[in-house]
């Protein structure tokens, strides 16, 4: 069918139920800026495909993270913005670092980038001494 100007196109998506995924996240470490989680195998980190709600990101956003009173006096207007700093595949279990604030995300991401750059330099040195 060819649509004409002023036509209205409506798409009715069938409802779907997300498949089972582990949902318990063990907190291994937490401070004012970050949280280290033990991510189980089978849990997706970011929404994609058939997993939109059963993800680490969704759980981070649902949880009520508390900032200690000491940090509130030091850092005015700090808004919580919990996000993973890196990704582990859905089938991978392991340590997942998550930032609690936008500033912490930038800092932790730069540490990862710096570490990756140093690892690449070391690898190139080992290949070409």
TrEMBL record:
Keyword terms, alphabetized? RNA-binding
From the Swiss-Prot or TrEMBL record, what is one GO molecular function term?
RNA binding
Q: Which reaction does it catalyse?
A: a uridine in RNA = a pseudouridine in RNA
Instruction: Supply the source organism's classification.
Output: Eukaryota, Viridiplantae, Streptophyta, Embryophyta, Tracheophyta
The record's annotation in SUPFAM superfamilies points to: Pseudouridine synthase (SSF55120)
Kindly list the biological process annotations in GO that this record carries.
enzyme-directed rRNA pseudouridine synthesis
Question: Do you know which InterPro entries this protein is assigned to?
Answer: PsdUridine_synth_cat_dom_sf, PsdUridine_synth_RluA-like_CS, PsdUridine_synth_RsuA/RluA, RluA_PseudoU_synthase
Protein name per the record: Pseudouridine synthase RsuA/RluA-like domain-containing protein
- PROSITE patterns the UniProt entry points to: PSI_RLU
Domain Pseudouridine synthase RsuA/RluA-like span(s) in chain numbering: 34-113
Name the PANTHER family for this protein: MITOCHONDRIAL RNA PSEUDOURIDINE SYNTHASE (PTHR21600), RNA PSEUDOURIDINE SYNTHASE 5 (PTHR21600:SF88)
* Pfam families according to UniProt: PseudoU_synth_2 (PF00849)
């Amino acid at each position: 069918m060819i649509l004409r100007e002023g036509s209205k196109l409506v798409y009715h998506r069938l409802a779907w139920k997300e498949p089972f995924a582990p949902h318990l996240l063990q907190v291994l470490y937490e401070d004012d800026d970050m949280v280290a989680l033990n991510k189980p195998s089978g849990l997706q980190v970011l929404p994609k495909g058939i997993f939109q709600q059963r993800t680490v990101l969704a759980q981070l956003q649902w949880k009520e993270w508390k900032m200690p009173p000491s940090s509130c006096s030091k850092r005015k207007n700090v808004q919580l913005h919990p996000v993973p700093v890196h990704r582990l595949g859905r089938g991978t279990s392991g340590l997942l670092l998550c930032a609690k604030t936008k500033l912490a995300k930038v800092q932790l991401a730069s540490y990862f980038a710096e570490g990756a750059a140093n690892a690449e330099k070391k690898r190139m040195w080992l290949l070409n001494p």
